[in-house]
Amino acid sequence: MVMRRVLIAICSMVLLAAQVLAFQPSAGQGEFVRIDQLPPADQLRAAPLLIAAYAFVWAVLMFYLWSIWRRLGKVELDMRSLEQRTANRNRAR
Amino acid sequence: MKKLFVPLTVLTALMFMYAPVMIANAPYEATMGLVQKIFYFHVPAWMAMFTAVFVCGIASALSLFRGTPAADRVAAAAGELTVLFGSIGLVTGPLWARKAWGVWWQWDARLTMALLLELIFIAYLLVRKYGGPGSDKLAAAMAIFGMANVPFVYVSVNIWRTIHPLTTVVPTLGDKMGPRALAAFWFSALSFMLLFVLLLTMRVQLDERRAELDRLYLEEEE
Amino acid sequence: MFLRVALLVLRKDFAIEVRSREILYTTLFFALSCVLIFAFAFVKEGKPLEDAAAGILWIAIAFAGTLALGRTFERERYGETLRALLLAPAPRPAIYVGKLLGIVLLLVVAEALLVPLIALLFQAALFTYPLLLIGLLLTGTVGFCAVGTLFAAMLVRARTRDVMLPILLYPITVPVIIAGVRGTSALLQPAPDEAVATMWIALLVCFDVVFVTLALWTFEPLMTE
User: Cα(C192)–Cα(C125) distance, rounded to whole angstroms?
Assistant: First the structure.
């Protein structure tokens, strides 16, 4: 049953691929080309964007690490208070 | 896995500290100049995001069809990482595009589909948090649908006429840009993958601790 | 057996609906109001924007569909009949298919009203290629409802079901909407582009196959609790 559905899915995709391959790309850039010297006009304007991109990556990673740290802290706190309560109860018995 | 944790953290931190050096040493690109260097972490971020999507999707399928709680924890962690790395890709992309294309955003095939993928996984996180009882199963279904979306996103640039660079950029990188560019790219890619593994491990550990806490609560009630 | 169960579920829903016609009338009127609001919202130089016809058609279908899905499963929840359905000795995917067919039928009736209305209000030549338009509408509706039925069935027990359904449904079905709108607007151009419309129909068929397959696969474990 499952195999049949998988086969149907694959067959439709092959049929689609045949259709769609008729539309060939032309506008996208296919490869990067290198140069060794940067034209002076380009130097500074791109820098803020590049720095912003880097800064964002760092900020978001730090935020996520902080968020995990905070949640872990809460769980540890709960665990310790729970252990405390269990220990008290065991002592009382 | 736990024994590797500290060395992995140290290694990842070191790689991330060295990556800018490698990126600075890489040659400039002809038409885009300095801003093209965003490529060295824009593409690895998306690679990490797609990996996260597949991990989430497969873990969700396992959790749905086998019922393993460990799979559910991995799926939740991978879901958060998908949104994280996706947000990196979706912010660094427009920053690059502003210089390279002149606009912040274009509704072309890849950008649209990448945004959709991000939205699907934000919805995944919302369902997990606010969905009520049985929400982890529904979230699992969301993740599976999201994973089915990824091949369309990858292939979209090659099929539809689009302003976004094609997938042939990466395979031809060494020939066209030289060995330093190639090294910088794969170094960054490796760093992001290690970061993904590291963050996944940390996040799964958080959920394991929570499960432990729940178990202790249940024991207390007895 | 599978088809029999599906048709049985369809007949049950149809019988209930024919008696009260509640969901039918409310969905139709909602779709109508949607179109009117958009007609007044998209204005160019004080007159309704004619190019918006394709988009408005599909938005109305999406919104009306969301409403219909919510109402159908709300009725199941209210009558507590969903559990009875699941307890029946029938293959679960057949129940899903029965529900799916019911909602698709409802939306097809809504579309039968919407298409002439939009053609009238926006002077859109929607009837020049009726077969292609029907193809687009059918494949798009099935794709949208396939995902919608799955999620609506699952959300029946959730507290936040009304707001969760659009949140979950729209990101996943946006490709269906894109394909539908692009295909329809290709047909509405001054020189209608049949090849493009056919390509979008092919893509919609692909989406339908993938989504229905995934939904059939996951319906069983999702509805088990």
Answer: 10
**Structurally, how many domains does chain C consist of?**
1
Answer for the pair A72, B206: CB distance below 8 angstroms, yes or no.
yes
Mean pLDDT, range B23-37, rounded to an integer: 75
CA C98/CA C100 separation, integer angstroms: 5
Query: What does the pLDDT read at residue A40?
Result: 64
Q: List, in order, residues 6 or more apart from C143 with CB less than 8 Å away.
A: C173, C176, C204, C207, C208, C211
Contact B64 C175 (CB under 8 A): no
Q: What is the ipTM of this complex?
A: 0.83
Neighbours of A58 (CB within 10 A): 11
Give the pLDDT of residue B77: 95
CA distances from B33 to A27, B18, B29, B37, B102 (A): 20, 22, 5, 8, 14
The pLDDT mean for chain B works out to 84
C24 touches chain B (CB under 8 A): no
CA C219-C221-C223 angle, to 5 degrees, is 65
Q: What torsion do the CA atoms of C9, C13, C15, C17 make, to the nearest 10 degrees?
A: -170
Q: Are strands C47-48 and B28-29 parallel, antiparallel or unpaired?
A: unpaired
Residue C27 in contact with residue C67, Cβ under 8 Å?
A: yes
Q: What's the token pair of residue C36?
A: 């009117």
Residues with Cβ within 8 Å of residue B9, at least 6 apart in sequence: B198
Domain containing residue C56: 2-223
Res C164 pLDDT > 60: yes
Q: Which residue has the tokens 């016609």?
A: C21
Please choose, from the candidates C96, C122, C109, the residue with its C-alpha nearest in 3D space to the C-alpha of residue C212: C96
With a CB cutoff of 8 Å and minimum separation 6, the contacts of A16 are C202, C203, C205, C206
- Dist CA B158 CA A30 (whole Å): 10
User: What does each C-alpha distance from B154 to B55, B66, C176 come to in angstroms?
Assistant: 17, 29, 18
Would the CB atoms of B144 and C147 count as touching at under 8 Å?
no
Asked if C211's CB is within 8 angstroms of B144's CB, the reply is no
Chain B hits for C178, Cβ within 8 Å: 112
8 Å CB contact between A65 and B200: no
C194 min Cα distance to partner chain A (Å)? 13
The structure tokens listed for C143 are 């794709």
> pTM of this prediction?
0.81
**What pLDDT band is residue B208 in, cutting at 50, 70 and 90?**
very high
Q: Name residue B160's amino acid.
A: W
Q: Where are the domains of chain B?
A: 5-213
DSSP state of A62: H
Identify the three-state secondary structure at position C174.
helix
Enumerate residues 6+ apart whose C-beta is below 8 A from B202.
A65, A68
Q: Do C219 and C151 form a contact (C-beta atoms < 8 A)?
A: no
Q: Among candidates C98, C197, C96, C207, which has minimal Cα distance to C143?
A: C207
Q: Average pLDDT in the B85-109 region?
A: 86
